[in-house]
Amino acid sequence: MSEALSNLVGRGRVHRRFYTDPAVFEEERRRIFRRVWLWLGHDSQLKRPGDFFTTRMAGERIIVARHSDGTLRAFHNRCAHRGAEVCAATAGNTRNFVCPYHAWTYRTDGSLASVPLDQGYEPEFQQRAATLALEPVARLASYRGFIFGSHSAAGKDLETFLGPQVRAAFDNFVERAPDGTVEMAGGKTIQRYRGNWKLQVENSIDLLHPRILHRSAVDAADRVDHGGGEPSIEWDIVKANGLTLREWDRLQIAALPGGHCWMGGFLTKSIDENALQARYRRILVERHGEQRAGEILAFNRHNTIVYPTLLVNSRLAQIRVLQPVSVDCTEQHGYIFRLNGAPQEMFEAAVRMVNTNNSPSSIVTSDDHEIFERIQQSIANGRQEWADWSRGGEGTSEAPMRNQHAAWAEYMAR
Amino acid sequence: MSSGVELWHRVQEFLFHEARLLDERRFDEWLALYAPDAEYWVPYAWEQASPADHVSLFYETVSLLRMRVDRLERGLSPLDSPQARVNHFLTNITVDAELTARAYLLFFESRRDEQRWFAGRCTWRLREHGETFTIVAKRVDLLNADQDSGHLRFAIPF
Question: Of A207, A285, B76, B79, which one is least surrounded by beta carbons within 10 A?
């Protein structure tokens, strides 16, 4: 199977089964999602012992908790008794997780604390109970406060997996905060589409499409009359998609080891040079001096894509993570961060940017998702079995996607 | 006939009119019902206290709404081509002396081979405007705004 799977990636093309075959998706679960480091959340969600949140790890339901001894723990949200979801809350603080079905009770490290009427079990159960627990996630690690988990006990450590250029995105994320810390805040968005997860990963660095696919939004933004006032961040971010094809082609992109990549920033001057940005810049200069503050702000990237499913944007203080549900259904979860020490209005602008751009009412990503569904519906039609990924050039080159495909083939061959 | 009943009747007519303008894609006329500084808000969280510190499904000024419907009218968006057909059903309408109107919304959408519906609770803050009203603020709380698996896309406002 594995050799056949990696053959789905050809030279400058991928076979349509890459997007449509449920058997391929099952193999991805095993060979990719159970091997890589997947982003789970952020330190700021777990400040005190007993704090927890529930999330998903490429679709699998997980509890992440700060144990009473202060250590981070992560385990499957599945009772060791009958398999029920133990914790239905999205976040909170607790001493124990108690299964609502038969009250099997677990500590915040996942270990089994008690079962009711345990004299009803055979003596060997008493011995076995010591080993019963909410199944732990094999490895857990943090980088600059961003928490990752891996289902694989072996493999690269987190820092090696990320590599220097991806780590730089997280470094910059934190350094942009005048106090040097960020805090997850403002809720989350979930956009669902009926298409394969890889369509979004590819699209996030496809710089040929914005001018074309997002033309309706850009045109509408062009016609907005600001009445002499300062344009809103929502308008600005939509407008930014309207670079010409030549301008998109001049944007910097980078393909990195492991299938990761990044693209340069493309926001308009009015986003980067408004009064709020000037106020923020002064705070940063006060903390770090002109030169260091300048370096931090000069880190001008849009998406950094951590293969397979994470999109990091330090400039906009947001993270998106894809949760593959099935071969033809994906959820995109979006999170916002507050830069501690920065003006409150910066956070509010980040919130508004997400409303317009990454919520189900978005006038930008909604068109992307519509297209993913059209690909999912149509790609199996006819006798043409391959999708073309052969484009060269500069910013609009498909080299980063070919790099993703190569990483995919490498995981699938092992 | 008491003035309370008459006000209730006038408000009801006005809200039905707004619903019809949306359903018939008469977006210019729809936006004309809103005050220039009006606020249109569909929270993402249940009982969301503020649009400032938490994401919303929609939190828009008239200028942003204009951009949104402008896009739909140009017919260039794949999301809206083919177009969705929608019905806004309003029931349980009440209005108080401060011209705060409330209603239950059932929103039915048909597009391509899919039909969806959403239930919500609407609140309008209205201002007298001659014989009729101007919308100062509209808030729609969808019962499933924060549903676990998220939402497919919204094109037409609620």
Answer: A285
Chain B residues within 8 A of A348 when measuring between CB atoms:
52-53
Residue B150 lies in a domain: no
Query: Does B153 map to a domain?
Result: no
Spell out the domains of chain A, with CATH numbers in brackets: 38-141 (2.102.10.10), 161-413 (3.90.380.10)
Q: What is the pLDDT of residue B1?
A: 47
- A202's CB contacts (< 8 A; 6+ apart) are A401, A404
pLDDT value at position B114? 92
CATH number, domain at B114? 3.10.450.50
In chain B, residues 86-125 whose CB comes closer than 8 Å to chain A: none
What the block records as the tokens of B98 is 């401060």
Peptide bond into A123 cis (omega under 30): no
CA distance A73 to chain B (A): 23
Per DSSP, B84 falls in state P
Sequence-ordered list of residues with C-beta below 8 angstroms from that of A98, at least 6 positions apart, any chain: A86, A104, A105, A106
DSSP letters for A235-262: HHHHHHTT--HHHHHHS-EEE-GGG-EE
- With tokens 């906009």, the residue in question is A316
Tell whether B68 is covered by a domain: yes
Range with lowest mean pLDDT among A230-239, A368-377, B49-58: A230-239
Establish, for the pair of chains A and B, how many residue pairs have beta carbons separated by less than 8 Å: 122
Q: Which amino acid makes up residue A233?
A: I
Q: What is the number of structural domains in chain B?
A: 1
- Find the domain containing B74 and state its range: 3-142
Tell me whether residue B151 is in a domain. Answer: no
**Percentage of residues in chain B having pLDDT higher than 90:** 87
